[in-house]
Fold:
Amino acid sequence: MSRRKKTTGALAALATAAVLLLSGCVPSFLQPPAPTSTPTGEEVAPELEPFYHQVLEWEQCGDRLGCTTATAPLDWDDPSAGEIELALVRHVATGDRIGSLLVNPGGPGASGYDFVHDSLDYAVGQPLQERFDVVGFDPRGVGRSSAVACYDAAEMDEYLYGIPENARGTDAWIEEVGQAQADFGAACADRTGELLANVDTVSAARDLDLLRAVLGDEQLHYLGYSYGTFLGATYAGLYPEHVGRLVLDGAIDPAASLTEVSAAQAVGFEEALRAYLDDCLATDDCPFTGSTDEAMDEIGALIASVGESPLRGTDGRMVGSDTFITAIIYPLYSPESWSYLDDLFTSVQFGEADLALALADGYNGRDADGTYLDNSSEAFTAINCLDYEPLVGIDAVRASAAEIAAAAPLIGPYFGAPSCTDWPVPSEAVRAPIHAEGAAPILVVGTTGDPATPYDWAVSLADQLESGVLVSYDGEGHTAYNKSNACVDDAVERYLIEGVAPGSDPNC
Structure:
């Protein structure tokens, strides 16, 4: 939530600035960052020279912040086919500068630009702000970069919140949901054009190497969260010789299939829900009583009830089982948000839909006025549909759904819907381990109670990487760095600042 400064505070700041100007001292917010970046000038193929040798021109866009755009090939396999823009923001190091640290918050589809520009202290700790130029960027297809576009706000509402007419799990339901996916894909193709075929993670990783070079860094220093770990690992596999210091927090297993990812996440959220209930049932104001198993059964019945009789919000929108599941999942990302679940379950028990809609809106990036804050939902689907092999046919969808439901009986049935059905751009992805042979040590951080990127994925990625070093955090929530655990923070920051990886896999 933003906080407006009082007028007196603003006047005081102006008065202070005037005094400093008269005394010959200029505060940092009046000192623009360096207007240009000097690229490395490294030797590349002739057709890539205009991209790798471009000079970035920065404009001041905040306290110690500079913003710019870089150009990249639309199609890395055919650099002459056109160009795209990549939006960047840079917070200039406050102390003795090591180099650039590129940061990705995940998604896919989340804005690294906004992450650094609006939430710098959340993105990285003060020690990293002191020693690095912290650079946020929107990957291809995302946000301020050349972006995927599919639906307007009303169409997105129907796509994300609409309630299918047919009963879940029937052939008619599979066909209905699959058709909705196909319609969405067709709209993306119509409104995005050629870019839609080029928003895969391999292309984004090639962009990452381009950004490294035009920022003037011989090696890539990188902090990736969640999906950002897959982007970082993909980079390491493509360019092991340019790996500097990479931290991958909340790891995705590059070898996992779409079904395996969905099943593992369903299990993760179900385990997080149990952890919430263990905590909740120890209090006097928990909306449930009895054992954790009994409370899980009550939640299952509540989800089924909402599925059979959807609830209407004050704005006229309906809450069915899928939207209710989204509302449950959103607070499970962080134990600090578990209290929202108390109110959510209580409100739904009383037939009220507004809090469920508000939580689902938060997850989907929908503002209270009905607009969408960004294109994250569109980019999420477009990128994933190129990064994973799709399920083809009703039998494949049924088999996948059965596997997911068996792994997580409460949440799993809602994770087994058709996805990427009839996507207009065929996926050429092959999920496989990434080894990054010859790369410098890479830090992989895993949280034992992470619902979105289960701990086993971090173990797997650290094992796959030839130089992987695992940092384990015994706790709850999604990702671990910069969340008040000194053990994790010290390991990450010492590695990034001093280049020293832990000698053994530490447990925090």
The two ends are 31 Å apart (CA to CA).
